[in-house]
Each structure stands twice: as structure tokens, then as C-alpha cells.
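Schema walk-through. Below, the input block comes first and the output block second. Nothing else is stored per chain. Lengths vary across the set, and this one has 426 residues.
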Amino acid sequence: MNKDMKSSFIAPSIEYPLIWSLDFAFPFITKLAFNLDGVILTREDEEKLRILKKDRLIYLSNHPSSIEPPIAYYVSSRMGSRFYYMASRNVFTWGFGLVGELIKRIGAFSVLSGGVDRDALKMARKILSEKEGKLVIYPEGMMTGENDNLVPFMPGIAQIGIWGLDDAKKNDPRAEIHMLPVFVKYILSGSRNSQLNEIENSLRRIEAKVKVHPGGRTLLRRFLTVGRVILEQTESELGVPRADIEGKDFDYRLGRARHTALNQAGNILGVQFDESENAIQKIRSLFTALDSWDAGTPLSTTPKNLKMEEIEKAKKLVDMAYTFLITKPKNLISYPTAERLMEWVYSFERHVFGQLNYRPRQAHVLVGDPFSLEPFYQSYQKNKKESLAEIMAELRRRMELLVERGKNLSQPLVPPFSIGMDIDIA
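--- output ---
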């Protein structure tokens, strides 16, 4: 947080009558709000959770959508405990502030996305220092839109854990904190035929909107064709010179569109990027600027007289970049599950229609093996940087194992690499 910023921090509270009501209403609320048909935990994974009931821990999950925090809430109830949650500052403004009023009463506190928020760090340390303190953090630091992959993690997570452990040991020298890796894998409900019909109908609506005729293309080729048309339209809207992309492959053009959109958003918000920064780093910096603006405490680098239409344009540019983060042709054609196809549908719908509608699905929660920060805490006293890097590497390794486990829960809906022959759009 910039030194000249006044705090917009929102602290958590726990109101048990509300929590008990939400426990009872959880299946109904998540079906109504997120079209979720249930949360699945294996007996083995539930046992892992119960063993950790009395421990201090950091619950670390992937974050492909907005549904993972409610799922973490469900996991806490299955564990027989309660979690605290780091939530992006802008979430507290949703629904004219009603969402914020609700989530802070079940343990959520605000953090400025992508940046350093000292008030949030102070609260995280306090929670972890307390007996049985449990904190939910999403190491990707953003909603990724993609369920089968992980973006680079925020490096500060390990430091939060070490600081929390250091504070805990001041009261209890035997204190420990466990890192608990968790992966949420969504599986579409219904039979193979019903999934195929839903994807077909959704794709036809999108094709009609962008004026693409399916012709004799295979399903995968139709997805690639719609993606190419949206990319071409976006390149034109962004003003990407044709000479710069002539003869370039699809991946290059996707990257060029991403960075052009993010750079233009940065120009509006006064965010300067280094040439070496990747799209994820740029998005995180833009989130910090937008979160701070929404909280009423803009960064010192944000132009003073920004108009609302300029803010909306910056948000639209970030949304454009998101479209092309998810659109990875190699991932789709190599393993075209119903879930991956639907992720592309969601991305297209958000870009073309300005909204998406989640289809019925179940959330499978895969719980990894927890690991203690104690060994790293000892080495941290000698080499801080190396110890923090080792924590993040171990977390990444365990999360990747869960990703692979999650991939095995779904099979290709159509044959991999069945892209057929390309056909002119006209």
C-alpha cells in the first residue's frame, strides 16, 4: 500500500447465528447463485481435514472462478472449524455493499489485489498467531478462468506463513503452522450427450453473434474459428497494426493482443510496466490500481481527474486480456473435455455478450498432504530468501500433483486433435 494512501481496510468478524444459518442453507444458496450441484469430498480427504481441526493452518486453493471461497467455507464446516478469508477489496462493494456486509461476518477481511496491503498482512499474522487460527489464501492471487492449470503464485504467501509462525511462537514456542494445498475441480453435470448438446447450443449462439457459419467444421475447428474471429476483431479494436502481426502464428497474436490491452489499461490508470513483466504480473498491478480506486483510496500514481468512463474502459481492457489468457488452443485440442470446452464458452460469452451463465456442475475438492512450516522456519533464520523460495517450490509441487489428480476426473468429450480441415470464414 502506498504511504500516502489512507486505509480502506475492512476487518472480519464471526457471527455464529449467521454462520449456522448459512451452514443449513449452503446447498440452496450455491445452487441458486452458482448453479452448483454439490461439493464432493472423498472419505480419505475428509479424514485429512478432521486431523487438522485443532491446528493452525493456511488453506491454499486454486482460484479459477468466484465460487472457491464458498467452497472453502463448506470445507471449514466439514472440518468442524472456521476459516478466515482474504478477499479482494472490490468484492466488498458488490451488490451495493451487501456482499461485503455478509462476508465480513463469516470471517472475510479485505486485501488490495496484487499489491502490498499492510493492514491485511497485519490481520493475517494475527489470525495465524492465535490458537487453531486458520486462514484461506489463493496463491494465484487472481481468478484465472482455467481449471486445469495454475498461474505463477504470489511470492509473499510464504512470508505471511513465516511471520504468522514467528508471532505464534512468542506465546507458544512449540507452535506450528501447516500449509494445506487444496484443488477444486469442476465437473459438468449430466450425461455425455446432454453436455455435448449444451456446448453445441451455446456455440451456435456465439457463432450467430460473431457471424460465423459452422459449415462442415468439426467441433474443435469451430471453437478455433470463433477464437480467431474474436481475436481479429479485438486486434482491430485495440489498433494493433496489421504489419506487426502479418505472418505471425496464433500464439504470438494472442500474446500481442493481451499485452496491448493491458498496456492501454496501464496508460489510463497511470500504471507503468517493465518490459520484462508478463501478463499475469501486469494484471496484478492493474488489479491493485482498480481495487484502490473502487475503495476510494486511489494510488498516488493514479491520475487525479479520472472519469468513470475511463475506469470502465480500463476494466474492459483487462477483461479483453482475460479472454486471451484462457484461450490456449494447444490445451483445448490435446484434451478436449466438456469442462475445457465450456471454459472457452464462458470466455466467449463474457467477451461477446458481456456476461456468462454457469452450467450445472459439481465441485470435487481434492485435499493434498499438509506440510509444516517448522523446518523452513529454522532455516529461515540463516537464509530468508532461500527458505521462502523452498516453501513456494514445495507448495507448487504439491498443488501440481493435485492438478494431475483432477485432470483424471474427466475424459475428452470429442477425439483429441480432431480439428479437421480449415474452412474460409466467408
